[in-house]
Amino acid sequence: MLDECQTRSEKLGVLGDVTASRPRPQTIGMNEDAFAVFYERTARPLWAYLLRVSGDRDISDDLFQESYCRMLSANLPTMDAAERKSYLFRTATNLLRDRWRRGQVANRLTAPTESYEENVESRTDLRRAFAELKPRERQLLWLAYVEGNSHEDIGGITGLRVSSIRLLLFRARKKLAGRLLLHRTQRSGKEDV
Amino acid sequence: MSRIQCERENEVLEACRSDLWTPALREHVSHCTDCGEVIIVAGFLVHEAEIAGLEAHLPSSSLIWWRRQLAAKNAALTRATRPITLVTALSLLAGALALLWFVVEPVEKTAAWSGTAKSPAYLEYLLNLYANSTALTMTTGTLVCLLFGSLYLVWRE
């Protein structure tokens, strides 16, 4: 009877603790070691994306863990590292979008004051320029210029059409570049005075 | 249609990220407004990413893995106990209906009773009523519920 219960529980995955004698469980073609490698490669970029696009450290922490858990839980075909990373960012983007819809992430952010940089004041001004963009614009710029994704990849992550991305990215870049240049001009003007 | 992207934008972006510039690319950037904007924007964002990387306090991968395993176990537990929950709910529903029937039916039947309600004959009448019809029907109903419940559990397994 005991044996029968144990067998059924293990079959259902209810009790089966991972022990050294058993093979480690696999998810989306990954065991724990492979996941550790993948995590090492993607954790900081993902966290930076979530932090800079959401502007909120707590939300970034929540969504960061949630993104990995969802990716691991998803019943996906075998993927290479680039596809997995793309899927991870897509999951994070969808979670961010859900938060925006629920109003938990502000559309216009206040620039964070904390920084590891020496010139905090200048950096805060620059961040404000970025924070004043729309969430979609921040996402597109980050995915294109930090992550180096192609328009097709960005389309896969955000769900937008490639033709739209081209235009939206162009406008977002113009807007941010204009603000950064304005800041630079004002800054140099102050220094001259 | 107006041109909204320079053909060499990707090259410039790659150079921004790697800080490896060819003389030809430098020459191109000095004339191209689009690429000039790319340098400004990419330079700012890449630097932001570096700072964010320094600020990050990330959990270990084993913690995430463990959390996912825990969630999977909870999901499996929920799946495993779903038939039990379902059969329990059905049993409660069947019990509630039977109780309702148990109370309502004698009231209806005794409406036609002409004698005194407290007389022994009335009690005997009620006992016969339950023994002959209601109890039989309830027993049959219970057995049918058990049969379907068991079949469902077998099917789930």
Helix-strand layout with pairing:
The complex is a heterodimer of chains A (193) and B (157).
Chain A: H1 2-12, H2 32-54, H3 57-73, H4 81-101, H5 120-131, H6 135-146, H7 151-158, H8 162-192
Chain B: H1 9-18, H2 23-31, H3 33-55, H4 61-110, H5 120-156
Helix pairs in contact in B: 1-3, 2-3, 4-5
List keywords for this structure.
heterodimer, A: 193 residues, mainly alpha, disordered N terminus, B: 157 residues, 82% helix
Helical proportion of chain B? over 70%
Biggest β-sheet strands, sense, barrel of chain B: none
Termini Cα gap of chain B:
62 Å
| Strand/helix succession of chain B | HHHHH
What is the count of β-strands of chain A?
Answer: 0
Radius of gyration of chain B, taken over Cα atoms and rounded to an integer in Å: 39 Å
* SS-based class of chain B: mainly alpha
Low-pLDDT runs of chain A: 1-26, 110-118
Mean of residue pLDDT of chain A?
77
Shape of chain B: rod-shaped
Order of helices and strands of chain A: HHHHHHHH
Distance between the termini of chain A: 88 Å
- Helix-strand makeup class of chain A: mainly alpha
How much of the residues of chain A is beta strand, in percent?
under 5%
**Oligomeric status:** heterodimer
DSSP strand content of chain B: under 5%
Biggest β-sheet of chain A: count, sense, barrel?
Answer: none
Rg result of chain A = 21 Å
